[in-house]
Amino acid sequence: MKYKLLAASILATLSTSAISATYQLSELGTPDNAKFSYVTDASESGHIIGLTNGLYNLPIDISYIDFTDNLIENAYDNEVSIFELSDKVITFTLDDIENNNAASTNPDAHNFMVRFLSGLSTNFEYQKLNSFTGIRFSEYGVVEQPLFDIASVDYDGLTRSTFNVYNAVSEDGVSVGWGSAPYDKVSFTPDGEDDAEIWFTHDFIERGIVIGANGTEVPLVPEFNEYGGTSRANDIVKTNNGYIVVGNISTDINFDRLEDIDENCDGEDEPVSSCINLLNSNFLGGIFNKRAVKWQLDASLNITSVEELGLALTPDEDEIEEDTFTSTAFAVNANGTAVGSSHTRYKNNDNIFVTMPVYFKDGEVVTFIEQENDSSQTGISSAINDDNIIAGYATRIVENTRIRKFFYHDIATGNTVYPTNFFLAANSTANDINNQGYIVGESELGGSDSSRDKAAFIYKIGEDKITNLNDLLPCYETDGETDYPYTVVEANVINENNEVFGVATKTVEKRDTLGGIVTDVNGNIEFESVAVAVKLTPLENGSIENCAPPEAEVYERSSASMSWLAFLLLPLVGFRRIFRF
What's this model's pTM, rounded to 2 decimal places? Predict the structure, then answer.
């Protein structure tokens, strides 16, 4: 991505004697039917995309469930015990769910069914639910982009069974992501049985997609598509002739996994699709070998070429490798240089493999992080600017602790730098870099090992100074007394106007899974912390407010802290980086 220089006055005014903020925060919005929202990308021309999680009123299909089955009876007994431990009386029975529509009217019953089904993610005799979906932000509101989901034949609305990752958007609003196929409820009779059973099957595990600004959808079907194959689309850039999209595709199935498929997935005891899904989830690398890929598309979104970008190791042709090998491209610049991660051999050891940051250039896959004496080392290259400066993270041992530390790497010089962090052993991740050398991401701030605050940061190459973006925001609301309600915990994008897009937390009235406001036993409204998508706009004449006590460190300002445990309870903050492998 291409960016302008952040106004020098902003970082030059980092002093505790300043009296006004240097960024203005705007909340981008959350759909009415969801609890959380996140930004994943924003174009220079104002197209902003993201994800939402915590959907209210997830549809529950009870038509096929045997409510006398031990699985659901035991789950209900455990639910009763949980209520009793909280000195509460449970408000529903299994009979209420089966015969009185309780899952649609009683929030406790709905919450129970959602958690029950979620705990059976690899049991394909039960409905599949997913609370994540893509969204587009605009001045007119937040619009859902469901990727592969379709209308259900069993209930109103979408199936809500697909997994969705909405990753990147081009200058003219063409976007990319990847997701799973929707599940169908099918009748299946096991071999030797007379009675049919209900199973949930789908056509593919994951597939990339390109979505035109006008809504045109172009699935990125891999050439190797046995059992659906796999593909992911992670980034897109507009070119003079069309678009470049990068991600990865399946190339074949690991030999050992093929034997497992032949032995187990014969379609006699369960549908083949269910068996394939289960096998894929049972192995860390899945069943498919995958390679980083670059798709070229013309202006009409026709795919004109598909180029595999390679792997940072050469599989042994004389011996059968037991592991699946994956490389993937996460970002690409205007020059067509892509960055990402790849399996490679640990210090040339044929039997140990690690996933390391790489870049893909001129037909080569280049690793550039020096491997330490620890085979658990890993990392990714998250972003690249047009000057071929890469940003990402790699794990390192600091103070006898393995941490995730952000870096930048200059392809031209071969130099890799791990900047000074908020404290020596802080976990940190770089998410984006601009052409002027500004990097944004998130980092731990400090505290004990069991409770560390986290904050979004901005860093300028050459200055060796990491700045908490919360320190560039007001201490108080406009009344001058009320604490500022937002804590920015993740920065994902910085554009040419020096606007930063990320995720903040704020406290709101707590809502149940049906969307109703939650009260305690005394009738008082309860509150909770939620994640919201935000945009930070720089102020030309701003300076830093002193929010922290005089004896406190700069990064410990009281208005920008949040317990690490509470942060972990916010689903998918950091989502864009979680599903990178």
Answer: 0.90
